[in-house]
Amino acid sequence: MEARHHLTFEVFEVGRLALKEYLNLVVFYKRRSFTRTQFQKFMFAQSKPFPEMFDLAIQLKQTLD
């Protein structure tokens, strides 16, 4: 799974690969004991905001305005 992730993550990150396609290639390329919905719920539950990135986005926007 790690190797598959490294091969596809950058394309996914820049928006050239949908989440469904990414998961098909990285996780669901073989039969699993859990469903896609279960996996996505788990995955989204792990996501946490990174406040420093919000600050950076605000600063970048201010410099572009």
Explained architecture:
The protein is an all-alpha fold. It has 4 helices and no strands. It has helices spanning 2-13, 19-26, 36-46, 51-64. The longest helix is centred in the last third of the chain and has 14 residues, at 51-64. The N and C termini lie far apart (42 Å). The model has no long low-confidence stretch (mean pLDDT 91).
Features:
single chain; mainly alpha; 65 residues; elongated
| Biggest pleated sheet | none
Give the topology string: H per helix, E per strand: HHHH
Regarding quaternary structure, how should these chains be classified?
single chain
The shape is: elongated
Strand and helix map with partners:
Layout: H1 2-13, H2 19-26, H3 36-46, H4 51-64
Short summary of the structure?
The chain has 65 residues and is mostly helical. The chain has helices spanning 2-13, 19-26, 36-46, 51-64. The chain is elongated.
